[in-house]
From TrEMBL:
The keyword Signal applies. SUPFAM superfamilies: TolB, C-terminal domain. This is Uncharacterized protein. Keywords: Signal. It comes from the Bacteria. InterPro entries: 6-blade_b-propeller_TolB-like. It comes from Sinosporangium siamense. Residues 1-22 form the signal peptide.
Amino acid sequence: MRKELALLAAAATTLFTAPAEAGATPAPKETVRYAWVKSCVKDKDNDFPCGPWMLTTSTGREVKLTDAQVLPKLASGTVVRDAVTQFQVSGDGRLVNYFRKSDGKLVIRDIASGSVSPLPGGAASLPRGLGMNDLDMHFSPNGRYLAIDYFDEKATQPTLIVDLLRRTTVKLPPDVTVHGFSQNGARLLVSRGTDDNTTEFVVYSSNGTEYESRVVPQVVTNNSPIALANDGVTVALVITGPRAGMKPKMRVYNMATDEISPALTIELHKSETPKLVTWGSGETLTMWTTTSNSQEEITAASRRTLHADSGVTERRDSFRIPRKLWTWWLPGE
C-alpha cells in the first residue's frame, strides 16, 4: 500500500511541471502515459475543448503537440467546436497518431526521436465525403500496425491495416468492426453481423488473409474489454456487470474449439474499473484500470499485470488524472 500511495503522490507532483514543446528532446526510454485536451468553461452550463493536444509522459513531463489538429472538420470543411479529433497512443507508449493541422493528413509521431511522418499512400488522407471523426483507429500494442475503420454511410469503404514499418496497406471488408490486434501485431480481431442476427468474430493476419472465424456465444459479444492472444484464437474477456458492486471477472474463449473457461474473479480495489486489456507473454495480460471517487469522477489510472490463471493483479504504474479535462486517452485505447 505504501508503494502504491508513493506512486500516486509522485505522479501528482509531476503534473505541474512546465509543458515542453513537441520538438524538445525526450528523456531516455520516455513514453506516453496519456494524451489529453483540457476543458474550458464558456458559462456555468457549457464547457468546450480548448488548448492543444497534450502528452503527459512517464517522467511526468507535459508536451504540447502544436502541430496536431484539435477541433475536427466535417467533410464540408466546417469546424466542430464541441468535439475533438481522433487521437491514439500506441500500447507501448512510443508512438502517437493524429491529424496534422497544416494539411489535415494522418501522421505518426515517434516520441523518442520527435520525427513525424504521414501514413503511407492514400491512408494519410480521408476518403471523399468523410470528416475527421468518421473513423476509428487502433494501434497494435507494439506500434507496428495501425487499423483504420471508416464510418461511411453506405459502408463501402474498406477497413485498412497499415504496416508502419514496411509502409504498406492492405484492405479488409468494409462491414467489419475492429476490436484490436494481438500483442505482436500479427493478427487483428474484428466482428461482423450475420444474416441470422448473430455476431461472427473474424481474425485476419496482418497481410489481410483470413486466419480464423467463428459465430461466438452471447457472453463473448456482450462483454468488454476483450483481447486477442498471439495464437490468433484465444480471446480474453472481462465481465464488469450487470449489477452495481459486482467484482469484475475474466473468462477465456477459444475460437478454434468454441470452448469458454469458467469465470475467474479479478482482484481489484472496489474503486477500480477495468478499461483496457492486452495479452502479454504466457498466461499474463496487461490491464489498464481507472479509479473513481464517490461522485463517480475518474481520478486516477493504473497499469496492472493480470494473471489469467488466478485473477491476481499487480500494479506496475499509477498516476492521477487531473480534473477539467475534455478528453484523455491511454496507451492502446
